[in-house]
Amino acid sequence: MFGIRLPISEIKEGRDEFVLTVSPEELGLSYPGSEFPAPVRISVVSQNSGLELTLKARVETIIRLRCSRCLKMFDYDFESTIILFIKLQRGGSQIADFIDEDFAFLDQSSGLLDISERIREEIILGLPRIPLCSQDCPGIAYKVKGEKQVDERWESLKNIHLEKTKK
Fold first, then answer.
1. How would DSSP label each residue in 108-161?
2. N vs C: which end of the chain shows fewer Cβ within 10 Å?
3. Ranked by mean pLDDT, which of 10-14, 153-157, 161-165 comes out on top?
4. Distance CA 137, CA 143 (A)
């Protein structure tokens, strides 16, 4: 995992905008039952006063999830915005990683902003708890045989013939 490290010295004073594109592997993205087929796009608006820095980052990517009703995979358009506050000072921390908070003290001339973990956390915690391919998903398609609904996925079990063993 390489991460996203922004040197303070490269963030212009005043208002600035820039876009970062990173692979899911660089952020260490993984979550059971999901895939991350697209890069993560981070649109950043910074406001640097020389003593304080505010970063507003819009995070966008596509996540492939399994529908909780029909169990089919579908693409989920993920979008979220985070805001980070940094107090710049002489002799401050060399690296701000934003693991515990969205606020940090950082050395004004040589500090590094590591936003990787905060972006990863935003994506993982932003996944829907019950993913649905659509709000009106009917769920698993059943065939009606007579008066019974039959789930076709279990039909192949009827072809299994078990022999009884004698004791």
1. TTT-EEE-HHHHHHHHHHTS-SS--SSTT---S-EEEETTEEEEGGGGGGGG--
2. C
3. 10-14
4. 17
**Distance between CA atoms of 67 and 69, rounded to whole angstroms?**
5
Domain residue spans of the chain: 5-140
Q: From CA 118, how far away is CA 14, in angstroms rounded?
A: 24
Give 55-92 as a DSSP string: EEEEEEEEEEEE-TTT--EEEEEEEEEEEEEEEEETT-
What does pTM read for this prediction?
0.75
CA distances from 45 to 59, 93, 112 (A): 12, 23, 17
Check pLDDT > 80 for residue 128.
yes
Amino acid identity of residue 127, one-letter, is L
Average pLDDT taken over every residue of the chain: 85
Contacts of 134-141 spanning 24+ positions with Cβ under 8 A:
137/67, 137/69, 137/70, 138/69, 138/70, 139/69, 139/70, 140/69, 140/70, 140/71, 141/70
Kindly state the DSSP code that residue 48 receives in the 8-state scheme.
E
Whether 10 and 109 have beta carbons less than 8 Å apart is answered as: no
CB 62 within 8 A of CB 76: yes
